[in-house]
Design brief:
The termini are far apart. This protein is globular. Helix 1 crosses helix 2 (108-119). The chain has helices spanning 39-48, 108-119, and strands at residues 17-19, 33-38, 55-57, 61-66, 81-83, 87-89, 94-97, 126-130, 136-140. It has 148 residues and is an alpha+beta fold. Strands 5-2-4-3-7 form a 5-stranded antiparallel beta sheet. The protein has a two-stranded antiparallel sheet with strand order 1-6.
């Protein structure tokens, strides 16, 4: 048992990280986070999204830039990885898709729904109900065939 006077084992050094740089000319007023999926899903996600922002890839992972906070009230399904500040494990990805418009972002809800579909995980997020007394309550609908 460790006490304040007992030396603790050293923790491993933090893994190196890479910041996904946004190409010049894009506005990042909403901040940047990133969503990554294993490369085996990469082409399927890219080809099925109706709108695409900047996409980065290496041999193992593909990453989509999304606005900051795109993880609020969402549980991104495994094996997807959500990276705050677009700080990802140091894998040296390169930009493979440059958007045509002025936004570097991929819309997060279509991306979330597509990742859920490809991984076989039912989408789930809190729903707010207004009770008769004006009180707002939040709850999560369990996934299933009876969920509206």
């Amino acid at each position: 048992m460790a006490t304040p006077l007992t030396p603790r084992p050293r923790r491993a050094a933090a893994a190196e990280a890479t910041h996904l740089a946004v190409p010049a000319g894009f506005s990042t007023a909403l901040g940047c986070d990133a969503v990554g999926v294993p490369a085996r899903y990469g082409f399927r996600v890219l080809s099925r999204l109706p709108a695409k922002g900047c996409v980065y890839a290496d041999s193992d992972w593909w990453w989509w830039l999304v606005p900051t906070g795109s993880d609020l009230d969402l549980r991104w399904p495994m094996p997807a990885c959500y990276a705050h500040g677009a700080e990802i494990p140091d894998r040296r990805p390169r930009l493979i898709h440059h958007p045509d418009g002025l936004s570097p972002y991929t819309p997060p809800i279509p991306l979330y729904l597509l990742v859920c579909q490809l991984t076989g995980i039912a989408p789930s997020w809190p729903v707010q109900d207004r009770r008769g007394d004006g009180v707002v309550s939040a709850h999560v609908h369990p996934p299933g065939p009876d969920t509206p």
